Sequence to fold (203 residues):
Amino acid sequence: MRVRKDNSEESLKASLRLQARRMLSEPITMLETHGGYGHLWRAVFPDVERGVVFELDSRKAQALAVQRPSWSVYEADSKKALAAGAAKHLSFNMIDIDPYGDPWAVIESVFTLDRPLASEIAITVNDGLHRKLKVQGAWSVKVLAPMVAHFGNHGLDTRYLEACRWNMDRIVEAVGYKVREWTAYHCGMSMTMTHYAAHLTRQ
Fold:
């Protein structure tokens, strides 16, 4: 069965990213972990000349390389590549994470003590885990173990926005950042997608 695409969700993605880039006082150096064909980049970041983008699909990666000749384009799984130390040649202040499902493993791989990051960062996330929480429960998602330990398994789907903020605080505070601004909401068909953005500064 073909799933109808929710165009309102794409509009919300662009709006959230515009909001996030307005948080920054410095020129943008960007990390985009799931580039696709670059539709969001064209809508929000076409003037950003310094960055790194990951894309696993070879045709999409080739299109991104043509689209952004001054960027570093990796044809790779961003979660694995970042965890292995890729993209340490730039200090990012704008991070966009837009996977099909779990974003947390990617977020964890970005915010490590040995990765150079700017003193001020805006991060935007498209999170697909809420669908799984509503159907299967948090216990079935390994990456959510810290949230389950803190909030409990029962009803985490109804507290997921609160849990996302808690988990973001936990991850970034471990490497010296503080969340100064936060936006989060559910969207998409049946409210199964979650978008959030944060403005981070060093403590």
Observations:
- The chain has one domain: 7-128+176-202.
- The chain is about 35% helix and 25% strand.
